[in-house]
Write a structure and sequence with these properties.
By secondary structure, this protein is mainly α. It has helices spanning 2-21, 28-37, 43-50, 54-66, 88-108, 114-131, and strands at residues 41-42, 70-74, 82-86. A 3-stranded antiparallel sheet has the order 1-3-2. The longest helix has 21 residues, at 88-108. The radius of gyration is 18 Å and the shape is globular.
């Protein structure tokens, strides 16, 4: 597990450097990508989708709003809720974020055959499933 954590950290560090080059902080990329997939999400839905607490999304959206990447609007049906929408500038940045992710992934997997990549993906998915087990469920042994 130590190696998995170190690899994940190295990956995130490499991505963070690429994001910094386009004036983004870690975490902002996830918000932009989520809105790129479904623009106009409520902040509550955005927090749920990203598995973070609502105050975290509120701060990130506020920062992205100042950067003119997101526009926050009140809900038409519930004045207590806000929805986040990408601006043109934000929409253009989504493609750059995806490109940065692909570059980091390409670098990380350099030298691995297609078969090795497929095996790695399956093993990582199995680890994710194993760690995602709820208390009281099976131990994941196959």
């Amino acid at each position: 597990m130590t190696q998995l954590v170190l690899s994940a950290r190295a990956s995130r560090t490499a991505l963070s450097a690429r994001l910094a080059a386009i004036d983004l902080y870690p975490g902002q990329d996830a918000v932009l990508l989520a809105l790129g997939a479904e623009d106009g999400l409520s902040l509550r839905d955005l927090a749920e989708r990203l598995s973070v607490r609502p105050p975290t999304v509120t701060k990130t959206v506020a920062r992205l709003t100042v950067q003119n990447l997101i526009e926050k609007r009140s809900s038409d049906s519930d004045a207590r809720q806000s929805h986040a929408f990408l601006t043109e500038k934000g929409l253009a940045l989504v493609a750059e974020v995806r490109s940065a992710q692909k570059t980091v992934e390409r670098n990380a997997l350099r030298g691995l055959s297609e078969k090795e990549r497929k095996t790695l993906r399956k093993l990582l998915q199995r680890i994710e499933r194993n760690l995602g087990l709820q208390p009281g469920s099976e131990d994941g042994a196959e």
